[in-house]
Write a structure and sequence with these properties.
Layout lengths: L4 E3 H16 L6 H12 L6 E3 L5 H11 L1 H17 L7
Antiparallel strand pairs: 1-2
Helix pairs in contact: 1-2, 1-3, 1-4, 2-4
The structure holds zinc ion (ZN).
Zinc ion binds next to α2.
């Protein structure tokens, strides 16, 4: 039996990051989006749960509401950093 676990914050951060990057005029290429998501995830506490298929959607929306303020603050900070020095030209 495989171990099944997941950091729910990954989904919450990704959902908010893409929307907020568009709103704030940040480049949304894969490189910039990855940077914003990684930065934000390092600044919010992880929320790992043992997963079983079918239970994920309800849990994600609960966490999305519960940690929305933390996620928005972290993503805002991440967007500032990435807009200041985007790395998509360095490749
Ligand atoms: Zn970019």
């Amino acid at each position: 039996m495989a171990l099944e676990y997941k950091n729910l914050m990954e989904d919450v951060v990704v959902q908010n990051a893409i929307t907020m990057m568009k709103v704030r005029g940040c480049c949304t290429c894969d490189a910039c989006t990855s940077d914003v998501v990684a930065y934000a995830l390092n600044h919010v506490p992880p929320r790992y749960v043992a997963t079983r298929k079918g239970q994920m959607l309800a849990k994600i929306s609960n966490y999305a509401l519960q940690y929305k303020a933390d996620v928005v603050a972290a993503v805002c900070e991440a967007i500032d950093v990435v807009k200041e020095s985007p790395r998509h030209d360095d490749r």
